[in-house]
Amino acid sequence: MLNSSSLNPLTMSKKNSLNKLYTNQHLNSEESEELMLQITEGSFSETEIAIILMFYKTHSVTVTELSSFRKVLLEKSLRFTIPFDAIDVCGTGGDEKDTFNISTLSALVIAASGYKVVKHGNYGVSSVSGSSNILEHFGYKFTNKTEVLLDQIEEHHICFLHAPLFHPALKHVAPVRKSMGTKTIFNLLGPLVNPCNITHQFIGVNSLETMRTYNYLLQKTLSKYYLVHSTDGYDEISLTAPYKIVGNHHEQLLHPNEAKFPLIEPEALHSGGSIESASKIFMNVLTNTASPSQKNAVIINSAYAIQLINNKSIEICIQEATEAIESKKALNTFNHLIQK
């Protein structure tokens, strides 16, 4: 005789979705939504969550699955609504390059250039210094209070959304991700689930496959976006190799020389392997004492994000980004933020 728990619809749907993954089958839209809903509601054990994450490490996520996962996470998030255009600048991570915090610095440069930025980020999983790690190191106070965040944008053109404060439903996943210490499906979801109604997205992706998946998904949204990927594997424009840019009805493969930047060595972008060394590079960029390679990597990413907003030539956008660093505007923006 069947016991009552075996007839529970939640138990059955949970079993069915896991069984499909066990047998190397992808999920349809309804199944994907149900799976993510069950994850966020704590219906799976940590072992089961690890199995799900391992499936998506060995199987490419489909656009249907990623879109459905995103839908649930946004519905479950604490939303932050703004009455103006803004951009998010982030990367998927997981490229195993352990670079210094290029996207966080770019966000500050963009804000110092006069454009509004709402950067969504988290602690690093596969690197020593995620955006939240570096900001916390310097004393930035994370908050999900709308009035505080709006004040920061009004005064400094930028605020930071620490993912755990806006996605409390993912508390069940965090310890598993931390114990795995490697990229997972949530690396791909992170840049797609900014809880703010942002209008522009500049996203670095860790592979051409991810770039294609993101492009299919973002084409169905109202966002203006640039996806960037360096051909040697970086989830940003690294200037160590040619880079690809894909946007709304727009695709380019470019060489650093075309933007009048020299090729740089990968070692120049390394964080140094600790939060202390990463923070030193971070401040060197802001004080305009970083190496030319480090400074150029921040400038080129900032410039293309600025171009996404203002539609000006990349040469003009490079000038804007360079001026924000050399005038110390980006440094002043950061100092005011962490002093609050």
Question: What can you tell me about this protein's structure?
Answer:
- This protein has helices at residues 9-22, 29-40, 46-58, 63-76, 102-112, 131-137, 146-156, 163-166, 174-180, 185-189, 208-218, 275-286, 292-310, 314-326, 329-339; strands spanning 87-91, 117-121, 158-162, 200-204, 224-230, 243-247, 250-254.
- It is of the alpha/beta class and 340 residues long.
- The chain has 2 domains: 7-76, Transferase, Pyrimidine Nucleoside Phosphorylase, Chain C (Transferase, Pyrimidine Nucleoside Phosphorylase, Chain A, domain 3); 87-339, Pyrimidine Nucleoside Phosphorylase, Chain A, domain 2, CATH 3.40.1030.
- Strand 4, helix 11 and strand 5 form a beta-alpha-beta unit.
Task: Please render the helix and strand layout as text.
Blueprint lengths: L8 H14 L6 H12 L5 H13 L4 H14 L10 E5 L10 H11 L4 E5 L9 H7 L8 H11 L1 E5 H4 L7 H7 L4 H5 L10 E5 L3 H11 L5 E7 L12 E5 L2 E5 L20 H12 L5 H19 L3 H13 L2 H11 L1
Parallel strand pairs: 1-4, 2-3, 4-5
Antiparallel strand pairs: 5-6, 6-7
